[in-house]
């Protein structure tokens, strides 16, 4: 490993390429840990200690770097097929350096790939920015439900376009409160909110308040009407049978006088 890291002036001085100084530091640290193939796999705690920041900040920075096309997430598995910690590969042509001349070195210190034919414009590697609020949704989902797979991510982004962040946050909270960590349950909650046209946080809060008030006002037990005649007859017969059984029992039990005689004979 080289004792130093070569970083382009343009990358270092650009204040608009990264969302925060934490994001820039995480990217530079990944370059520092990357091998010849551009793959780096430091732990979240290692990056958090080096920035320095919290592990949650590191996770958010890695997610946004993947979204912007700076790095590529690589899933790693052990020899038994079990998944281990993820690795991250530095893109050979980053969004900042994609316009440089062939033969120039990238921020990783490796030459960029030249076009086969001069003048042929390379396709842009920069991805479309995620919809507003999607990062908060993904973080909330991972915290309360579980891992966000590419399929779940696409579904969440589609739902976000159809509804609102408030709807998705509410559905995730409902699934967590019910201890049903399943995307299908979240989908059912969202469908229910859409049918009621509850698409904003204010509408959801108003609906929940009305529902709680209705439960509070409702009587705990409904009064029944007059019982049928046969029910009353059955009740009276049961009471009479119990009274007769009690009388027979009392007749078989000796009174105080009888008990005194029995004790005297025993003595």
TrEMBL record:
Compositional bias of type Basic and acidic residues: which residue ranges? 115-129, 226-236
All copies of the DnaB/C C-terminal domain together span 140-207
* UniProt-annotated stretches for the region Disordered: 94-133, 208-252
- Residue stretches of biased makeup (Basic residues): 209-225
UniProt feature, compositional bias: Polar residues: 95-113
Give one Pfam family.
Answer: DnaB_2
Instruction: State the InterPro entries in the record.
Output: DnaB/C_C, DnaD, DnaD-like_sf, WH-like_DNA-bd_sf
Q: Which domain of life is it from?
A: Bacteria
> Could you list the residue ranges forming a coiled coil in this record?
none
Q: Which SUPFAM superfamilies match?
A: DnaD domain-like
Similarity-based family? Belongs to the DnaB/DnaD family.
Q: What is this protein called?
A: Primosome, DnaD subunit
Please report the organism this UniProt entry assigns to the protein. Exiguobacterium sibiricum (strain DSM 17290 / CCUG 55495 / CIP 109462 / JCM 13490 / 255-15)
